[in-house]
Amino acid sequence: MSSVNIIAMITAKPGKLEEVLAAFKANVPAVQAEQGCIEYNAVIDMEGVGGFQTKIGENSFAVIEKWENIDALMAHATSAHMKAYGAKTKDMLESRVIHVLSPA
Questions:
Q1: Long-range contact list for 75-84, CB < 8 A, 24+ apart?
Q2: pLDDT of res. 99
Q3: In-domain check, residue 79
Q4: Who contacts 23 (Cβ-Cβ below 8 Å, separation ≥6)?
Q5: In the chain, which ranges are E strands?
Q6: Would 74 be classed as within a structural domain?
Q7: What is the mean pLDDT of the chain?
Q8: Residue 34 sits in a domain of what CATH number?
Q9: Which domain holds residue 30?
Q10: Is residue 2 part of a domain?
């Protein structure tokens, strides 16, 4: 079974980005301790990049994830700490788009 890559695009409601990111960062240690987690990090637009960059936006961040396999991802998605994070942030989010990807 091959690894699973995730790019989750999160857009917070105006004025809520820092609060959502704080909740995300508080949850990172629990996620990184999960069996099968290879990578789990939030990223934001980098400043000072040349004209080829397409920014994700001032109220947005991406979550870059890599899991050993689909079973590890599914266990993550249904974990108690992810349910709690989702409940804590749901009213602060404008959108959440999750791309589940396999190696080409």
A1: 75/34, 75/35, 75/36, 76/31, 76/34, 76/36, 76/37, 79/30, 79/31, 79/34, 81/27, 81/30, 81/31, 82/27, 82/31, 84/27
A2: 98
A3: yes
A4: 85, 88, 89
A5: 4-12, 37-43, 60-67, 93-101
A6: yes
A7: 95
A8: 3.30.70.100
A9: 14-58+68-101
A10: no
Say what percent of the chain tops pLDDT 70: 99
Tally the domains of the chain: 1
Task: Evaluate if residue 50 carries a pLDDT over 80.
Answer: no
- pLDDT 10s digits, 66-94: 999 999 999 999 999 999 999 999 999 99
Give the 3-state secondary structure of residue 66: strand
User: Does the pLDDT value for residue 1 go beyond 70?
Assistant: no
* Token pair 């979550």 in the structure block, residue: 63
Q: Answer for the pair 85, 27: CB distance below 8 angstroms, yes or no.
A: yes
Tokens of 73: 């991802």
pLDDT at 39 over 90: yes
The two beta strands, 60-67 and 4-12, are antiparallel
Cross-strand bridge partners of residue 53: none
Task: Please state, in angstroms and rounded to a whole number, the distance separating the CA atoms of residues 60 and 94.
Answer: 9
